[in-house]
Each structure stands twice: as C-alpha cells, then as structure tokens.
Known about the structure:
By secondary structure, the protein is α/β, with parallel strands linked by helices. The protein has one domain (3-294): TIM Barrel, CATH 3.20.20.150. The chain is 41% helix and 14% strand. α4 links the parallel β4 and β5. α7 (196-203) runs parallel beside α10. It comes from Ravibacter arvi. This is Myo-inosose-2 dehydratase. Residues 33-283 form the Xylose isomerase-like TIM barrel domain.
Amino acid sequence: MKVSLGIAPINWTNDDMPELGAENTFEQCISEMALAGFEGCEVGNKFPRDTSVLKKALALRNLRICNQWHSYELTTKSLAENVAAFRQTLSFLKTMGAPVIGGGETGNSCQGRVDVPVFSGKGMLATNAEWKSFTSGMNELGKIAADSGLKLAFHHHMGTCIQSAEETERFLNDTHPDHVFLNYDCGHFYFAGEDPVACLGRFAGRTAHVHLKDIRPGVLESVRRESMSFLDAVRKGVFTVPGDLEGCIDFKGLFSVLRQSGYSGWLVVEAEQDPALANPLTYAQMAKKFLDGLI
C-alpha cells in the first residue's frame, strides 16, 4: 500500500475543548508523534502559524503536515466570506506542502454545542434550495483548491448536515468529482449507525484522506441513552485509537477495502480523548504498532 501514517494533535490537545490537554505543549506533542514513529500530522490550535517556525520544528523531527481542519460555514455565511477564510487556510497548507484541505460544515452544526444532544440536534438542509446553495458553494471552494494543487477533502461528521451514508452519497453525487473529495472517517460513520467497511467500499473512489479511530460501544450506548452532546461524548471516551481492545471497528475489513481500491495517501489516527485519562504517547504507540501490522 502506498500510504503514509500520520496522527492528529487533537489526541494531545482538543481544539473544541482546549481545557483537555491544556498542559501539553506544541513541542511535547510533535516530539511524541515522532517518538511513536509517525511520518506526519495535522495542524492543531497550538501549532505556530509562522510557516518558517513550524517547518523548522517539524523538520527536526522528520514530520510533515498532511491536512488541517477547515470550518465551512456555507449554511450561515455568504460565499464571499467562505472563500476568504478558505483561501487563508489554503495558502497556509500549500506553503506547508499538505496535499489536502479538510474540515466539515460547522455553520448549522451542533458538534461544538455542549447543550445540544448530538443525535437529536444535528444540522439539517431542509430544502432543495438550501442543498443546492451548499453544494454549489462546495464546488466553488473545491475548484479553488484544485487550482492551488490541493484536494478539498470534506469530512462527514456527527452533528452536521453530512453525517449519514445517505447524506454523504448525495453530497458526493451533487459535487464535482474532480474538485470535491471525501475525508473518510470510520469512527464517525460507526457513531452515525453506519457500517464503516461498507461505507468505505461505497466511497473509496472519492476518498482523498482517511481518519482512523475506534469506538467504545458501551460509551456510545450511554451517549444515545443519556442524550449527550458530541463534546460530552468525547469527554466520556466514546472514541479511542485503532488497536485498543475496547474498540469494535473491523480494521482488517477496512484495510482490505483500501488495498482493493488502490488507495494512496495519508492514514491519520484521529481519536480525540481526554489526555488525562488516555496518555497520548501511550495510545499513539498502541495505534502505530497495530496499524503497522495491518499495513
């Protein structure tokens, strides 16, 4: 498989809840990523925005930037505002040599709201006109990314208007196949009640970036039963890394699909947990050993 293994800094410091891992520095984060044996990483909230400073810090540890979350707000802001914000993130990622720009629609999402249950408060596109406006905007942003030499890899995500397999399929059908791609995430599909292996089989042809995380099924059941928000679900430990025996996702099945599809690109461990309860280095090493075995 022509893949590179990366990891997300959200395992050390949570972007949506900065108090989780507030004690972990940028230098500790990237040093432990390198110590665990990863080749690259995504961008977190403690990463310096000065590209020369960031490049030097990463080069010392033989790490590369592979992606960054970008919050699209096409459901709540004008296309012009979205284009301006997108170009800023795109310029940063291009300078850092990243192949994709990721992220999902946060404008009408409940993913960052602690007071809204994730299963009943998800973002919606209620009318065909809203859907058309959204997908047209994504097409324009995807074209901008393509013209810059990057791929827009859209992240389906719990709490958003693109959450289920059906919504993902409609989104891909209604966006340009040369400009808009998928950031596939097995954990979010399982969380949404989907079969991650079947979803990868359906969407592998449009997948430009892969997030690998596992689910603790007992915690997921509590999230549903107790009507938790997405953020509370993360605090409770709904996610964990591949290789954790508490997880339940069929990673052998996923890797079989990846091989059959000829996927090449980044595989990124992105399993946000409370670092005080799940030591980031320990879990990074666990994931790396497990994924090396599958590859």
